[in-house]
Write a structure and sequence with these properties.
Elements lengths: L3 E13 H5 L10 E13 L2 E5 L8 H10 L2 E2 L2 H6 L10 E3 L5 H4 L9 E5 H10 L6 H4 L8 H10 L2 E4 L3 E5 L2 E7 L5 E8 H8 L2 E5 L5 E5 L4 H4 L3 E4 L8 H4 L18 H15 L6 E2 L11 E4 L5 E6 L1
Parallel strand pairs: 3-5, 5-6, 6-7, 13-14
Antiparallel strand pairs: 1-2, 1-4, 1-16, 2-3, 8-9, 9-10, 10-13, 11-12, 15-16
């Protein structure tokens, strides 16, 4: 048995398509599109893992800021409640990157193990205090977020990682995309074939002396193929960023919040396409308002959607 993956939208608002697709090749120049804000929950192997913590709208300053930026913002606590979870149910938080809509709700999860890349956190911790970088940091970062997280790091509640991680949990890897949308954004790779194999990787048999011994489970061809899902944060905003749109068959690197280079973004797209085999039903993106077209979904009373990537 592998992991269930559920993506929950907690907010929505319009952005100019230049931010979404870039300038050259933009299929809808001068227009706007609705863009969602979401978090993703991975459940299985005894874990409730939250990828990114969204915005804590119960914080007055964040609620005011986000209320001015997007049309509707319900926040992370509301999002989890849509699938019957509360913050205390989350045992692990993986932060893809250190922008406000990804780390802004972290203090709601005091009992979770938290993972973020060291280069990512420390870069934004420094940038947000230097007014020379305001064009980059506003409104991507809020200075008040970083001191409490630094305290959690010193207490050992937040782990700073340095590079890729294999088997953070069985079948869950972290891959770092450097200088793309952010400084060191970590992508979550869920391989359900590996997770299933790990869950049944040993069996008890009798040896020649009649004793019970534990041995590796014989290879199961049905579980040997990769069954991979990629949770890619803000590296892309739409499948079209990776696949092109209309007559444009090349990559479309978004401008939104990008602190790295378009070339690095496009190299990351090559890697994602390799992992997913080009199947966009295996790709989850934070701000992708088209996920309802490729995942089984249901609408909340507030008009936002829950996407069941793997049930």
């Amino acid at each position: 048995m592998g992991y269930q993956i559920t993506n929950i939208e907690y907010g929505i608002g319009p952005w100019g398509t230049e931010f979404v697709y870039g300038m050259v090749g933009n299929p809808k120049p001068g227009e706007t599109e609705q863009n969602v804000h979401s978090v993703t929950v991975i459940q299985g192997e005894g874990h409730n893992i939250l990828v990114d913590t969204g915005v804590d709208t119960e914080d007055p300053a964040k609620g005011k800021l986000w209320g001015e930026l997007i049309t509707q913002c319900k926040g992370v606590v509301w999002a989890l409640a849509q699938i019957g979870l509360a913050p205390d149910d989350i045992d692990t938080v993986i932060l893809t990157h250190a922008h406000i809509d990804h780390i802004g709700g972290l203090l709601r999860f005091p009992h979770a193990r938290v993972f973020i890349q060291q280069k990512e956190f420390e870069a934004w911790e420094s940038l947000v205090t230097d007014p020379r970088y305001a064009q980059l940091t506003l409104p991507a970062a809020m200075a008040s977020d970083y001191p409490p997280i630094r305290e959690l790091i010193e207490e050992g509640a937040v782990t700073l990682l340095n590079g890729d991680v294999v088997n953070l949990y069985p079948g869950i890897d972290l891959h770092v995309a450097y200088n793309c949308h952010s400084v060191a954004e970590q992508v979550v790779v869920v391989d359900n074939a590996t997770a299933a194999q790990a869950a049944g990787s040993h069996v008890v048999v009798s040896n020649e002396q009649g004793q019970k011994v534990v041995v590796p489970h014989p290879a199961d061809p049905a579980k040997s193929a990769r069954d991979v899902y990629v949770i890619a944060g803000d590296l892309a905003l739409r499948p079209a960023n990776l696949l092109g749109s209309g007559d444009w068959k090349g990559f479309l690197a978004p401008i939104l919040g990008r602190s790295g280079s378009a070339l690095n973004v496009m190299r990351a797209y090559e890697w994602i396409l390799e992992q997913t085999g080009g199947d966009m039903r295996r790709l989850v993106l934070t701000h992708d308002s088209t996920m309802g077209e490729r995942f089984e979904s249901e609408q909340t009373e507030d008009g936002l959607q829950i996407h069941y990537v793997v049930r």
